[in-house]
């Protein structure tokens, strides 16, 4: 694996956050999966973040000492940093500092292969970069000296102007592509196709399930966010049903990132049915946490709209026995009913071992048939 550098990972834990350990462990996996060597880690607990630096002064001094002693190349922070926090941390630590938002975009950029994803990622990066550069420019003029690694006292002003122009062009281009995408979806529906969109947490096995159901050979990987481009494929043996594989969700996903992937989110909004995939092999608390995240995100992007949902409880081959599987499925069912005030069918499957795939396809067909009959009656 490519080694990108030696990293110190840090998190400000807000008191009362019972999920902080889960969040931090997942964050470290993201960092490591992208090729950084995690040399040290810091967690500070506070009731609220410092406006200017996120962390307290003493903790930053501790981080600086670790960075110097361990030859740290970069500091990666779990929390989303304001421009002033990022700037001050870089000055105080004398190293590049990125947050989880920036890390996620870097992972996206690494996996992006289609033009739509690349444009959306570039726009998200620029949206994050503009206020930071604007602040840098202000600090430079106030201090009348170049900022660390600035490359010129007045270099930021023309860069800022160019970034704003580029942002405008990107927004226009993405909106044009989005309109084309929505028109394509509408045309498919007018031709009699129904769309089933696979949604869920990253690494739940969505793409593996998509491949098993459709016979496609889309790339599957253990690394996060492998799927960025939405892919459509027909469900064999069943008339006019299209499955769509989409981007996966993650805990505390920044709303700005969701907003930047509007084109992908439209596949969820315009779906006739959602195939919600969950990794049932994980511990019960993790399952509950992840299903909460998925449902919350779907609500946030207005993708539910009372449409039918089928739950694929994936990776049953990794569950120890039937008793444990049944307990987890019951817990999952109860949690979904609590969140959505309704019950939905749960189909146990293993995309890897090809278990339950036919039953899942039949449930999709049955659900779409009921939907078509209801529509024709109206």
How big is the Rg?
23 Å
CATH class value of the largest domain = Alpha Beta
**CATH topology-level name of the largest domain:** Rossmann fold
Described by the principal axes of the CA atoms, the overall outline is globular
User: Looking at this structure, what is the CATH superfamily of the largest domain?
Assistant: P-loop containing nucleotide triphosphate hydrolases
Strand content: 15-25%
Query: How helical, in percent, are the residues?
Result: 40-55%
Number of β-strand runs: 10
Going by helix content, strand content and strand pairing, the class is alpha/beta
Count helical runs: 12
Oligomer: single chain
How do the strands line up in the largest sheet?
6-7-5-8-9-10
Largest sheet, in brief, is: 6 strands, mixed
The SSE string, one letter per element, is EHEHEHEHHHEHEEHHEHEHEH
CATH architecture assignment of the largest domain: 3-Layer(aba) Sandwich
The number of domains is 3
Would you identify the regions where 5 or more consecutive residues have pLDDT less than 50? Answer: 145-153
> What do the pLDDT scores average to?
89
Secondary-structure blueprint:
Layout (H helix, E strand, L loop, with lengths): L4 E10 L5 H14 L2 E11 L10 H13 L4 E4 L5 H11 L3 E3 H12 L3 H29 L12 H35 L3 E7 L5 H9 L16 E4 L6 E5 L9 H6 L1 H8 L3 E7 L4 H17 L8 E6 L7 H19 L5 E3 L8 H21 L1
Helix pairs in contact: 3-5, 4-5, 5-6, 6-9, 10-11
């Amino acid at each position: 694996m490519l080694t990108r550098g030696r990293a110190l990972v840090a998190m400000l834990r807000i008191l009362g956050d019972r999920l902080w350990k889960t969040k931090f462990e997942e964050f470290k996996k993201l960092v490591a999966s992208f090729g950084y060597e995690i040399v040290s880690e810091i967690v500070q607990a506070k009731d609220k973040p410092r406006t200017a630096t996120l962390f307290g002064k003493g903790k930053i001094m501790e981080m600086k000492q670790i960075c110097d002693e361990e030859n740290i190349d970069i500091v990666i922070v779990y929390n989303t940093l304001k421009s002033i926090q990022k700037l001050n941390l870089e000055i105080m630590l004398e190293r590049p500092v990125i947050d989880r938002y920036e890390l996620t975009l870097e992972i996206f950029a690494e996996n992006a292969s289609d033009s739509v994803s690349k444009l959306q990622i570039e726009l998200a990066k620029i949206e994050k970069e503009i206020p930071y550069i604007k602040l840098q420019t202000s600090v430079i003029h106030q201090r009348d000296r170049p900022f660390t690694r600035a490359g010129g006292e007045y270099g930021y002003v023309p860069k800022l102007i160019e970034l704003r122009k580029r942002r405008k062009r990107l927004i226009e281009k993405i909106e044009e592509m989005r309109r084309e995408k929505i028109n394509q979806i509408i045309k498919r529906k007018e031709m009699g196709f129904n769309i089933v969109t696979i949604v869920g947490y990253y690494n739940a096995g969505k793409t593996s399930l998509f491949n098993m159901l459709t016979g496609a050979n889309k790339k599957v990987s253990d690394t996060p966010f492998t799927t960025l481009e939405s892919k459509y494929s027909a469900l064999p043996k069943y008339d006019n049903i299209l499955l769509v594989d989409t981007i996966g969700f993650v805990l505390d996903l920044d709303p700005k990132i969701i907003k930047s992937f509007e084109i992908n989110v439209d596949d969820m909004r315009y779906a006739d049915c959602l195939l919600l995939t969950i990794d049932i092999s994980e511990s019960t608390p993790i399952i509950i946490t992840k299903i909460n995240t998925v449902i919350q995100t779907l609500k946030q992007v207005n993708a539910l709209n009372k449409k039918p949902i089928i739950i694929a409880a994936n990776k049953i081959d990794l569950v120890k026995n039937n008793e444990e599987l049944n307990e987890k499925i019951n817990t999952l069912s109860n949690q979904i009913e609590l969140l959505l005030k309704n019950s939905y069918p749960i189909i146990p499957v293993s995309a890897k071992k090809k278990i339950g795939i036919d039953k899942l396809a039949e449930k999709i067909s049955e659900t779409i048939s009921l939907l078509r009959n209801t529509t024709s009656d109206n």
